[in-house]
Design brief:
Blueprint: E1 6-10, E2 16-20, E3 29-32, E4 38-41, H1 43-47, H2 51-59, E5 61-64, E6 69-73, E7 81-82, E8 89-91, E9 95-98, E10 109-110, H3 119-123
Parallel strand pairs: 7-10
Antiparallel strand pairs: 1-2, 3-9, 4-6, 5-6, 8-9
C-alpha cells in the first residue's frame, strides 16, 4: 500500500505514471506490501482468468519468487514506471524506499529488475524499450 501522497498523470517516460504528491525525503518508505490491498495469485489463479482479461491483468502485476506468487497492487502503485538509469525508488518485492530526496511533482521511477529479475522477458519486451 502506498505510504505517501501521489497522483497518476500522463508520463513522458511511459504512458501514465505515478508522481509525488508531496516532498519525499531520502529513506522514506513509499510503498509496503499489505495483503489487504496487494493481492496474491497462484499460477493456477491466473490461468483461470478469462484470456480476454488476462493480458491486461498480467501487465499490472509482478512475480515474487520468494513466495512463488503473482502480486497485484490494487492501489496506484501499479502505475510506477521503470528506469534503469535514474531510479529514485529502490524496490524489493515487499517494500519501496526513496533512494534520494524526491520533489513534489516528480515522477516516481524504479528499476523493475530490482524486484522481478526477468520482468521484461516474462512480458515479451526488451528493457531498452523502457529506458
Amino acid at each position: 500500500m502506498l505510504r505517501i501522497k501521489t497522483k497518476v498523470i500522463p508520463s513522458e517516460t511511459h504512458g501514465i505514471g505515478l508522481y509525488a504528491g508531496e516532498f519525499i525525503p531520502k529513506g522514506t518508505i513509499t510503498w509496503k506490501r499489505d495483503p489487504k490491498i496487494d493481492i496474491e495469485f497462484t499460477e493456477a489463479d491466473v490461468m483461470d482468468i478469462p484470456k480476454e482479461v488476462r493480458e491486461k491483468f498480467l501487465w499490472h502485476r509482478y512475480y515474487d519468487y520468494t513466495i512463488d506468487k503473482f502480486i497485484v497492487c490494487a492501489d496506484d502503485q501499479r502505475f510506477i514506471n521503470h528506469s534503469s538509469k535514474n531510479p529514485n525508488i529502490k524496490s524489493t518485492p515487499d517494500m519501496d524506499v526513496a533512494s534520494r530526496d524526491i520533489q513534489e511533482g516528480e515522477e516516481l521511477l524504479c528499476n523493475y529488475r530490482d524486484y522481478e529479475i526477468d520482468w521484461f522477458e516474462r512480458r515479451g519486451y526488451k528493457e531498452s524499450d523502457f529506458n
